[in-house]
Batch of 3 targets.
Target 1
Amino acid sequence: MIEKAALYVVNPDVSCRPEGEDGALLFNPDTDQILVINPTGLLIWEALKEPRTQAQVIEAFSARCEGLPDAEEVARDVAEFMEQLLDRGFVGIHKGAVS
């Protein structure tokens, strides 16, 4: 379950291979899972390279995109994707200090 105040960050063991216009492939060696993400998912993944709250991810994502649907729909879609990443171990909750 996504916690809005928690700081999320990519699992440092996960590798990301960009696939041009198609998005990217994520590989989690801890679980041997591969996840294909579209360009939208890649933007969210890139936003999570540093610890961020869900709201900060949504803000970073929205700043890089034009013509987005309403803010509630964007927030719902980002939260759903982040929850999938968290559940599969591609993303974790940051436990250290943030500078």
Target 2
Amino acid sequence: MPNLQSAKKHLRSSERKRLRNQVHRGRARTTVKKARRLLEKGQLAEAREAVRIAVSALDNAAQKGVIHKNNAARRKSRLMQQLNQLERAS
């Protein structure tokens, strides 16, 4: 536990920020998982929509600073590659 008053305040503010960031990180993870699941099943129409939503969630998380912008770009790129492979196969 922190001893100094400023350290106690920093602990409180870090916890608030962690909870706020958790929302955006969780939303991004969930949408990416849903998109991947649909891509694996081969459901093209639903997968397109899910990928669009996942890309939006990743952009939002990167904009908020929850994940690094290059991390978001990498994940979006991999999702789009999977989607393109599925479209070519169909």
Target 3
Amino acid sequence: MDINSIKIPDVIKQYDYESLLQYHIDEVKKILPDWKPSEGDLMLIEKQASAFREMHLRAEFNELARAFFLTTAKNSDLDNYAVFYGVERLKGSKPTATYRFELSSKLEYEVMIPKDTLMIDDGGTKQGKILEDVVFYIGDEQKEALVELDEYCQASDVELTTLQTPLPYVYRIEALEEFGGGATKEDDESLRKRILLSLADKSTAGSEETYKSYTYKADAKIEDVSVYSLIPGEVLVYLYAPNSDEHILERVHKSLSAEDVRPLTDKLVINFAEEINYVIDATLKIFENNDSAQIYINAMDSLDQGLKNLEKIGADITLSELNDFLRVAGVKEVVFTSPKNRLTIARNQIAICSSKKINYEVYDEKY
């Protein structure tokens, strides 16, 4: 179901001030037929005030009504709506960074910094954990590992410099990059989509929608999911989560392997969707005597929105769609240099526009 195609509920009405004012004037004329409203008339001023007040009240009633519908509820209203379906807004995703761990000297035996060891910053206010065992074999002096910051954000420049439980053989800890690849709190659009998917959560047959719902729950960075089967008993799950590492696959596997999610006979194969990069190179032919710069901006905005909707696993890229995005009011024709043909995308792939080169020129109907 495409929730964006559902019309706004009829209970939400649209009003304008002039219509409401005219209604109030007409009501007065029913009692005083000879009254002719004029500028400065005290009764007219009172009716103008009434019309303004009614506009605000009706707008408030509309906002109250929106809170009761999945398509229009937002913020905390949508959170409360989600409670009925056992769904919570995702807090976000924690960013990661690569760290280097150095020993004070070469050792004659193997040592290890265990997975999930906590690290803190100099002030002791921020912490994170190591996502994998850091094993130093005989002769090793340094190793690198991924560290996850214990904070829901997209990125952070905080540096974790100390192990919370000191190890005598660890001499130095160095951040090789800033924390990145995280995500902030889930937005309304994503939560709405998951509420719809959650209706399949109680399925015991391992439906496609059930697997999708629990995959999205695993991490807020997941933007799209494809679920299908080619062999009975084997479920293929492909996900698109930009700038993510392999640890997200572990979280998805854990989410989908719960007893109330995965049928006993299902074997899960979970992986990232293969990214197919393409370039859009086109020229817009804009009618003369138009504001070419504004038309160009409108075309680019339309293209960006259209590409966002096309950024789905298994979605083909067609020239007709790209043409529709760019051919806004004022554009006579769109001439494509790239792509030349339709891009056919498999069920385990996703097409990503890596760059856009859009020019424009004035269309002269005389030639």
